[in-house]
């Protein structure tokens, strides 16, 4: 039996021990070096992001997931069709297409001499390149002439005030799978990893995001692996826009006096680079811890490999850094819309590189040798868009490969609209760039593209000989080979599916509602093509799958009240449907037909019990 005094002593001792433990855990935690701002960001991130069994950061919180989806979807789709006014405008002009401006020679950058390094050390803006590191650093970057009261979205379509408020070297949470952290550079990597030149192209990029992008490269990469950081200022309105990064170590800036678009600008950067590896990045990114060695390792294994990091999300409204779902790869629809999808699991580890049929386009490493050998980019593509399709088809079909590397993470600000103009209209530019890709690379399958994107039929594609000759010279395989071997999961119209696109009744469409598991479907006014809630594939196996571009795997099923709902796709009887001769969608198990008679609800009733019109559905594609 303890006396009262010794009990009190024991309690006091235990309390002191707990306090000491608490102090120690707090002060030795990996987060202890973070500022208050970072800590509150991190807490917020933890609140929003649930730690899963394998400790991987996943976006399971619905708000975060929606945010992520919104960001990824809206930013990675071409904005063609998003802006009805613009689409209308382009459409009216289709009869009289204005020819794209001729390629011009800008300074000594001759776009026709694409395979020659014209003058690798040429500087368009003569800036000093000090050998000293750029300290002291600029902690907070302001826009020139920006006022606190002005609309923070006006220039960049993201909240530039939120970016300005963050330190230029802010910490970001390490979003990698913990298994990645066990591999240390240099010990656990090949001793002769190739070094790289980083290439950023930008047009009117905000100074704070531009600066932070470069800073994150310099701060989070082993210095011996970075030879140079080349920025191509693609004729920003203010010729001094890039001055903010002037004098940073290893930085060189080239300026286009005329707008070339990101595709020709990247080639210009590549031609000026002298490293064995080129690494392309967008100008509003933040590299995460140890992002570079895992990319270079891929190229070290195979000089024909293209390696893309896993792209995290920097929220465009508050600049919070969010870890994105792992295990995704890039795919696309026949209208040439890039989309994320779940990579088929082939029994590999969660940190193995994921072969991807397509890259998002902006962030990747490639050897200079393979970039040049395989035809760089198609220089007749303008401004933005389509080049990721071209380089992906070309790489796979001509003997290379593409992977998304889970242990390399880079955050990117996804936006909803382009902040810049498209000389010639963005619908037309996207049509031209994708039609050039289809003409050169897609063989007989291009008909499915034109069917899904009819406006591309009218695109002024320009000369194609150089690219078709390239394909011959490299002895590339067919598009059929690509589909069979690289992307067998892509359903081919007429072969694997009953129909795809929107499922329509006049101006009303079947809509995925919340788009989440068990969400009730609805009959809604049709949205512009390629929306994430109204695109479906009715497959030959009888399943109707939502094509939302976010890597979900939801199919149409019936709940107990015969409401149409989203379930995880299987080929179990409750998920199987038949598209009848009279255009009904009949549930095989119950024999009921989908009807709009209770709209906006989408429900199933005995076939023929409601008016024919309410039961008749058409596919747009
Ligand atoms: C995605 C890619 C982007 C590119 C594009 C398709 C990611 C994260 N981003 O769109 O890199 O492949 O798909 O073309 O995968 N820019 C110029 N000149 C121009 C227009 C843009 O230099 O005329 C710059 C721009 O400042 C930015 C980069 O090119 O740094 C990409 O443009 P974006 O951010 O508008 O493209 P994004 O992310 O929507
Ligand atoms: Mn971008």
Automatic annotation (TrEMBL):
Residues 156-166 have a biased composition (Polar residues). Keywords: Disulfide bond, Glycoprotein, Golgi apparatus, Lectin, Manganese, Membrane, Signal, Signal-anchor, Transferase, Transmembrane, Transmembrane helix. GO terms for molecular function: carbohydrate binding; polypeptide N-acetylgalactosaminyltransferase activity. SUPFAM superfamilies: Nucleotide-diphospho-sugar transferases, Ricin B-like lectins. GO terms for biological process: protein O-linked glycosylation. It is a single-pass type II membrane protein. The keyword Lipoprotein does not apply. The keyword Transmembrane applies. This is Polypeptide N-acetylgalactosaminyltransferase 14.
